[in-house]
């Protein structure tokens, strides 16, 4: 629920701070006092696009901030976690619009992008502006209302999954068909490049190995000379280290016999002799393996040059050469075996069309069951709202594919168009007069009737609707008298399931408020300012009296207002 709304330097509003409460919050005020500005500011808070025109004259920026109680709102918690924002019992949403054109958005004082503010707003509030109920006149919205009531999210998810699989396969087919046309043009070039690479036929890491071996071969004479010198100094030359150290070792043994303190040094000498043996053996083996063949050296140079030439042409490294060879090999294979691959993909698409069709049928069956429930219950609610002879029908159509298109699903060997909601085209039809056949809402319903149809739908959806706050801006348009009382009772009923904020000009509805707020314009200095405050006791009675009789409040008007309020309690 929305617990606090603060608006600063927004249009005619200088600074207001409103504490909203649970239940039915009613806002009233004269025409032009600023009620619609409140709704516009709330719309901004919930992610609507901003304009610098909203900034109060003489100010640098407009700020709208709302504090929402989000305890137990799992969807909001998930959204915050996904975006690395700490979860608190309250969520602070803030928008700032400056004259410089900057538009800053915050969730719990963390700067975020506008789309995240809008996503959060969609999970917090259902706002129906003064003309928003006209969305019911657009038939494409009807299927969403039906699905919202139905609660068959698993069937919707199943259809979405299969539909996405089909769309992905169709996209792959289009890509493949476009790609093959291009590949056929490049096939000869690819074949030439494959032959060029395969002629060398390099192995992974071969260039590094060759470079290492070349360094050794190019320095083989120097290696032979130096290893021979080292071996002679150690073992085979005149007065070699090996023999001299053997004599030292023998002397240490004799000394140990006289003084045992030489025992440790004898052991160390043994270790040194063992290491000398290892070094001598290694140098001898290395010297014997040195290859002085110039032909082998030249062969390795030619091979390395051939590999380096490929690297320059195909990516700069041997790995890139090998990756490119694999890629163009696959491209040539695709071009040569195009028909097989296309046929295989078409078989997958045919199967996916049937599977998507089955999911669409399952979804449609459940929709029709849900439609039957809605038709009955909407008529009941409309009767309570003063449309006694209403007939409400949910029309279903399925559009067959006639033109040449690939985007279709298959049901019982017939092709049907589909969209994100299945293959049903749903439209609400209504008759508000006895004996008339149900027709499109736009053709049959007046403004007041459309308001009541929306209210009926909201009343029906109230228990299923998870949004904590509903906002209605003059949903009572076009109704009065006894009908206004019925509309008020329906709004009051909704407030049992949601926090509800409603702007109204009807005393019958205002009298039902759990909390009543008055909006008015005041002249402060040389400026006009819109203000809002909660009305209590006599203030509330006077406000309802104004709604009953106009700006001039009489004693009779005050008494009528008291009676109206008391009759609701």
Folded structure, characterized:
With 569 residues, the protein is an alpha+beta fold. The chain contains 18 helices and 17 strands. The strands form 4 sheets. Strands 2-1-4-5-6-7 form a 6-stranded antiparallel β-sheet, with helices on one face. A 6-stranded mixed β-sheet has the order 8-14-15-3-16-17. It has a 3-stranded antiparallel β-sheet with strand order 9-12-13. A hairpin with a 2-residue loop joins strand 1 (2-10) and strand 2. 29% of the residues are buried. The model has no long low-confidence stretch (mean pLDDT 87).
Widest sheet: strand ordering: 2-1-4-5-6-7
**CATH C-level name of the domain at 1-130 and 467-535:** Alpha Beta
Strand tally is 17
**Average predicted confidence as pLDDT:** 87
- How much of the sequence lies in strands comes to 15-25%
Spatial gap, N to C terminus: 24 Å
Mind describing the biggest β-sheet?
Answer: 6 strands, antiparallel
**CATH topology label of the domain at 1-130 and 467-535:** Rossmann fold
Q: Report the structural category.
A: alpha+beta
Instruction: Tell me the CATH superfamily of the domain at 1-130 and 467-535.
Output: P-loop containing nucleotide triphosphate hydrolases
Helical segment count: 18
Helix share bin: 40-55%
Uncertain regions spanning at least 5 consecutive residues: none
